[in-house]
Structures are given as C-alpha cells and as structure tokens.
Amino acid sequence: MHYKRVIPCMDVDNGRVVKGTKFIDIRDAGDPVELAAHYDAQGADELIFLDITATSDKRATVVELARRAADQVFVPFTIGGGVRQVQDAHDVLGAGADKVAINSAALARPELIDELAQVFGAQCVVLAIDAKRRPDGSYEAYVAGGRTPTGKDALEWAREGVERGAGEILLTSMDRDGTNDGYELRLTNRVANVVDVPVIASGGAGHPQDLVEALTVGADAVLCASIFHYGSHTIPEVKDALRKAGFETRPIAANPLA
Amino acid sequence: MIAIADYGMGNRRSVEKALAHVGAASVITSDVRDASAIILPGVGAFPEAMRSIERTGLGEQLIERAAAGVPLLGICLGMQLLFESSTEHEGAAGLGILPGTVTRLESPRLPHIGWNLVRFGRESALTEGLGDAAAFYHVHSFACRPADDGDVVGVSEYGERFVSVVERDNVMAAQFHPEKSSIDGLKMLKNFAALAAVPVA
C-alpha cells in the first residue's frame, strides 16, 4: 500500500517560522520545532524545514535546526537552506535529518546532486525548484528566494536533476506561493510527466480540494504551509478530504503512548 | 540502560531521541557488554556495515549477548545484519543470529521509500498494543528471508510480500524505522524498552 503524503512546510527565518505571499510580505507563525511536533502529533507524514535566513553562518543554523527537530519530531524530515557541499549534508543528516533539499547551490553547480546521491543515496536528495511561468507558457527556475531568474527551463532542470541522482522533486510555483488559490496544476502535471521520481507539489494550497487536485494530476505528495500555520484547516481535515476523493492515506494510531 | 550499537553507520541520534521521548535512557556505544538491552541500527550497504562491525569487535559481543538472552532489536539494515548472509553488492556473511538470508526486494521500483502498512500475523512483545496492522516508514532495497516461518511477526507489501518484523525469543527486528514512524513507532520502541527493564537470568 503506497500512501500519498501530506507535508507541512516551515519556512524559517532567524529561528522563526514565516510565511509570505509570492515570496514577500512575510508573517510570523511561531517556533519551527514546536509547530513541527504539533504537526507530527496531528498525523503529518513528513515535514520540511526551509531556512531562508540570509546569513554567512547559515550552515551552523541549519545543523542546529536539524538537531532541535530530531529531539521532538518522529516522522521523517527534510532540511533545506545552507547545504552547499557534501560536508554540509553530512552534518545536517548526522544531526538527525532524513533528507536535504538543495536549490540555488545545485543550480550554481549541478554536480552537487551527483555527489550527494553517491555518498548518501538518492533517497536523501531532494531537488527544490522554484518555477515561474513565462509569458510563452513555459516555466523558468528562479533562485535566491525567488528573486533571481536563472534562464534555465524548469522542466529541463527537473529532468537533469533526476538523471544526476535527485530522489525527489520539490516543485514550488512562485506564481501561486502563499496565494491560497490552489497549486499550479499544469506545472505539477508537466513535471510529474517528465520525471520518474516523486514530485511534491508546493505553492498555493488554500483548501483541501486543492490537495486532491494536485494528487490527481500526478503529484505524489502535497506540501502545505499557511493553510495549516494559520489554522484554516487541520491535517485530519485534509486527510479526510483525500480519503473521500479515493486517495489512501496512512492510518493514524489512536492508541496513546500509555 | 539500553545500548545503541555504534559502528559508524546509521541514524543513531534519531533512535536515541525517540527512546528518550518514551522515557528510556540509552547510550550510543561500541561496547554493549553491560547493556540490559541492545539496539542495532543501520543505514547503508550490508558488506560495509559488516566490515565496520567486525572491526569494532561488536560482532562477537552481539552474538554472545543475544545467546545470553539480552533483548536485541535490529532496525532496517540492523535487521538484515542479524541474518546469515546478504547478496548486496559482492555479498557478505551476516551475524547469523537469526536463520535466513537477505536478498533484493522483488519490485520494479527501488528503493522502497515511504509509509507502508505492516500486517501482524502473530502476537509479539514488540507489537503489543498495536492491533492487527499499523503504518511505518520504510527505506530499503533489500529484504530478509527468514528460514523459520515461526519467527515472522509482520509482513509488508511492495512489489511482493516481504517480512518486515521478526521475533525469535529475545531477538527481534523491524525492516522499517520505528524512530521515524510517529506514535506507532514510538509505541514499538516503548515496548522494547520495557523488555530492557526485565532482568536477564
């Protein structure tokens, strides 16, 4: 039985969870690890922490985040931000993370994907792609928190990333991110069609039905942030919606740790 | 005190933190001779892991302690290492604490990653309170083939049905990661920790 996954995502800036709209206009949503532990208890299948702090000691920051998360989170979690070389990934995984997400560093030096996959296995390597729609309908990969275009076609980049050893694609639509208007289904579908690894749809979830639609067009997992952070919907609510739509979700234990 | 066997591979820290969460003290160590229970974690390739285990002297300790009746729990690769041999890479002999072998999972898409349902075919100390089935987080490409059906506690399905939980007297193992399987996984570790509190004759 393969279960589709619901993945709450914490964007972390200076130790606090933040969530913006289209990567700007950022609001505070609390302590990342406390929030993550809460989502674990609610039935989150995995968790993602993306550190967006723009400081030089970023590596130390993400290792500490992984360490704190491992103390309180007992589902698999991914850490992104600050992983630029194999040693960074080694430290983050050693601190208790299960996977690392890479974005800008991989676009700057694609061989990083090969190196990480070789040392840790593809299952540890998540390629995060921030994609923005071009006027002609194609999609371009952006870096630096969505500020800088790379000139690289997002679909081509996804395909190349998987060939190099990425085990998963975390696909964010910059046009939908934080809007609650639903995922960019056309983008999700296109990327899911060109790669044979799981695609995590990200950017735009506002209603349980949005999650159903992303899974319907080929996503293997759905990432949510503001929909959960600001309490508009809970994880049990969205899982209930997924089940009603015919997607199996993992059974959640009713038995307390008594 | 529960010893988490340290041979340089595996997510020892996650196991330690999960045990702490259920109130069980543990220590990460390559000397397990005084432990009241032992956990053998593991991530990586079988032959490399066996080389590390032999190099640290853990192999003999684990075999001796298991025979002495100390509760022993293998997790993921740690489960596979308990068996007699594996075909991974060039192939290698295992600890031989449990009868059986380890071969590649018969599935079109590997590794097997994600939450999967484990059905329990018999009762065991490890799965007490978990009902007939529960979901756990799996990450692996190889699976154990126990020689004795009586050792099989739980099976999962991914391309084929494979054994994901075993128990033979004081020796038990899970192919998935209880330390990453939320409440049900923590429950399993709590069940194991309870065995550590019982004095070994």
TrEMBL record, chain A:
Biological classification of the source: Bacteria, Bacillati, Actinomycetota, Thermoleophilia, Solirubrobacterales
Stored CDD domains: HisF
UniProt cross-references to PANTHER family, sorted A to Z: IMIDAZOLE GLYCEROL PHOSPHATE SYNTHASE HISHF (PTHR21235:SF2), IMIDAZOLE GLYCEROL PHOSPHATE SYNTHASE SUBUNIT HISF/H IGP SYNTHASE SUBUNIT HISF/H (PTHR21235)
Name of the protein in question: Imidazole glycerol phosphate synthase subunit HisF
Subunit structure: Heterodimer of HisH and HisF.
Its job: IGPS catalyzes the conversion of PRFAR and glutamine to IGP, AICAR and glutamate. The HisF subunit catalyzes the cyclization activity that produces IGP and AICAR from PRFAR using the ammonia provided by the HisH subunit.
Origin superkingdom: Bacteria
Principal location listed in the UniProt entry: cytoplasm
GO molecular function: imidazoleglycerol-phosphate synthase activity; lyase activity
HAMAP family membership: HisF (MF_01013)
Species for this entry: Solirubrobacter phytolaccae
Subcellular location: Cytoplasm
Gene3D superfamilies with a match to the protein in the record: Aldolase class I
From TrEMBL, chain B:
Catalytic function, reaction form: L-glutamine + H2O = L-glutamate + NH4(+); 5-[(5-phospho-1-deoxy-D-ribulos-1-ylimino)methylamino]-1-(5-phospho-beta-D-ribosyl)imidazole-4-carboxamide + L-glutamine = D-erythro-1-(imidazol-4-yl)glycerol 3-phosphate + 5-amino-1-(5-phospho-beta-D-ribosyl)imidazole-4-carboxamide + L-glutamate + H(+)
UniProt entry keywords in alphabetical sequence: Amino-acid biosynthesis, Cytoplasm, Glutamine amidotransferase, Histidine biosynthesis, Hydrolase, Lyase
Pathway connected to this protein: Amino-acid biosynthesis; L-histidine biosynthesis; L-histidine from 5-phospho-alpha-D-ribose 1-diphosphate: step 5/9
A single GO cellular-component term on record: cytoplasm
Domain spans labelled Glutamine amidotransferase: 5-193
A GO molecular-function annotation: glutaminase activity
Top-rank lineage group of the source organism: Bacteria
Localization of this protein: Cytoplasm
EC number: 4.3.2.10, 3.5.1.2
Alphabetized InterPro entries for the sequence: Class_I_gatase-like (IPR029062), GATASE (IPR017926), Imidazole-glycPsynth_HisH (IPR010139)
Keyword Lipid metabolism: no
Function, as annotated: IGPS catalyzes the conversion of PRFAR and glutamine to IGP, AICAR and glutamate. The HisH subunit catalyzes the hydrolysis of glutamine to glutamate and ammonia as part of the synthesis of IGP and AICAR. The resulting ammonia molecule is channeled to the active site of HisF.
Subunit organization: Heterodimer of HisH and HisF.
Protein name: Imidazole glycerol phosphate synthase subunit HisH
